[in-house]
Structure formats: C-alpha cells, structure tokens
Specification:
Layout lengths: L5 H23 L7 H14 L3 E2 L4 E4 L2 E3 L16 E6 L1 E3 L2 E2 L2 E6 L7 H17 L6 H14 L3 E2 L5 E5 L2 E8 L15 E4 L2 E3 L6 E11 L9 H6 L4 E2 L10 H10 L3 E8 L6 E3 L2 E5 L4 E3 L3
Antiparallel strand pairs: 1-5, 2-4, 3-15, 4-7, 5-6, 8-12, 9-10, 9-11, 11-17, 12-16, 13-14, 13-15, 17-18
The chain binds manganese (II) ion (2 copies).
Length: about 290
C-alpha cells in the first residue's frame, strides 16, 4: 500500500525543483556591495513567478550566524567580501514544502571553502546511506564523523527535521551527531537533512530577532490575515505590506497577545564561522527522492 498519494508526491517533487532554482537565483545575486534585500526579493519573486509560494522567508545569515536572518522591509545591509553566507530557501506547492540551503563566500576568497565542503560532503554521505527504515542516529553519525574528519565541530543543537504539509519543522529531529535516538524513517515521510559545521564550539544560542515570524499559541485564529495568506508557515515582516494596513503595529499587537512569535537569529560565539548544506528528501517504499537536487 502506498504511504503517500501520487498527488502529494508530485507536489513535493515540484516544490523541490522550484526551491532548487530559487537557491541558485539567490546565490547569483550575492556579490560584494549587493543588498541582502535585492537577493531576497529576487529569489522569492522567482518562486512566485513559477506558481509556488515561499516555504518560509529566505534566510541570508552570515559568518557566526547559523540561521534565521531575513532582510527587514527597508533593509540596507550589503554583502562584504569574505562574508560567509548561508542561503536557505524553499518553495511550497499547496503546502507541500521544500527546504534547501548552501553556503557561499562573498568574493570567493577561499578562506572557508573547506568548512563549506565539510557540510556538503556530510550531506552527500548521509543521503548515500539513507534508506526506508534508516535510523536517524545513523545519519547523525555519518554527518558528525565527516565534519569532525575535516577538523570542525558539528553543531549539536541544530539539525534537520521532518517536513509536513504546511509544517516546516515536524518530527523527527535529524541530528548532526549520533544522539543515540533509535527513531526510524519510514516510507511516506519527507525530511530535510542539514549539516552545520563550525570553527567554534559547535553550539548556537539565540541572538536578536531576525525579521522572521510565525503564528503561535494554543489556538490559531484562522480569520487572521497572516493565516489566510501564509497558513502556518513562517513569514517575513517584508511580506506584510500588502496584507495588513500597518505591519509594524500589527506585529507588535500580535506578539503582545502571544499569537505571533519572532524567530531569534541563531549564533555561534563571536568570531566562529558556520557553514550549512541542506536538501529535502522524500522517502518512498523502495527508494528515496532528493527533491531539491
Ligand atoms: Mn532550511
Ligand atoms: Mn531545514
């Protein structure tokens, strides 16, 4: 018996194709002096032009930031030579999501190319051992060993995840090391594998907010404009200008009422560099499909 309908499988695969193109588009916009905002709008614009929606606001996180920065509505940040940029983006077709990421060095000075390679190699190795029935800890072990063999630390309190419909971060957690968890991956599941490698201690903490929000709380009001526009996926303050009359005060009041929360930028300690690579994978009865490859 099929664990996933043909319709769901096809939508996951289409979301993956568009997510991959959007990642390439964002990377093509990154050069010294370019605005973060331009890269974000062009990449998310491509997703919409192709008939999909972003799975979440594009993350453009630099240097010791692991994730969760997206440009603010009038963001003035520009890329500088040597910035290590984690570009993380995905597409949604009818709530079936893709999530993929790559790390680029602005100006390609090569200083962190081995750090980047360690995450790409860890991702490829994890995919090569992934089968229906694999244990998540075995993926974690391959990822951790690969990153360690390059002389870096896998980030322990960050990792991959299940991908559900309109649910970007569902169970299980896919660790970047062997966490002794015996959870098994089964046909019909979609997962994102995302190795993070660090030149620091391999632990991240919450920094300030990064302009990415999500509906939260025990009861979500389905009449809210953000629910009607974005369902339960993360959204950017940038996206609210056509959704509510006064985005800043709307966000303030929703946060105060605990109906919206803001994601914190995830950071290593100062001076440490972090790289990331990510693909979305669909697990079928007899094979896996890397939807973002
Ligand atoms: Mn991602
Ligand atoms: Mn992810």
């Amino acid at each position: 018996m099929a664990e996933i309908t043909d319709d769901a499988r096809n939508k996951f695969i289409q979301a993956g194709k568009i997510g991959k193109l959007a990642l390439e588009k964002a990377i093509s916009e990154i050069e010294p002096g370019a605005l973060f905002l331009t890269a974000a709008e062009k990449a998310e614009g491509l997703i919409r032009e192709m008939g999909a929606k972003p799975s979440f606001p594009v993350n453009l996180s630099i240097n010791n930031e692991a994730a969760h920065y997206t440009p603010a509505p009038n963001d003035k940040k520009v890329f500088r030579t040597g910035d290590l940029v984690k570009v993380d983006i995905g597409a949604s077709i009818d709530g079936y999501l893709s999530d993929n990421a790559a790390t680029v060095e602005v100006g390609e000075n090569g200083r962190n190319s081995d750090l980047i390679d360690s995450t790409r190699e860890a991702l490829n190795k994890a995919i090569s051992v992934l089968r229906p029935g694999s244990r998540v800890r075995d993926l974690g072990r391959v990822i951790g060993e690969t990153i360690t063999s390059h002389g870096y630390k896998p980030v322990k309190n960050l990792g991959g995840h299940g991908v559900g419909r309109y649910d970007l971060h569902s169970a299980p957690f896919i660790p970047n090391y062997d966490d002794q968890n015996g959870n098994v991956l089964r046909p019909g599941q979609a997962i994102a594998i995302e190795p993070f490698a660090s030149t620091g201690i391999g632990m991240i903490h919450n920094g300030p907010g990064g302009n990415i929000y999500i509906l939260s709380g025990t009861k979500i009001n389905q009449d809210e404009p953000v629910y009607r526009n974005f369902n339960t996926i993360p959204f950017a303050s940038r996206w609210l200008k056509d959704v509510v009359p006064d985005p800043a005060s709307y966000l303030r009041s929703m946060i105060k009422a605990r109906q919206v929360s803001e994601f914190a930028i995830l950071k290593e300690h100062s001076g440490a560099m972090i790289a990331q690579s990510e693909h979305t994978i669909l697990i079928l009865e007899d094979r896996i499909v890397v939807t973002t490859q």
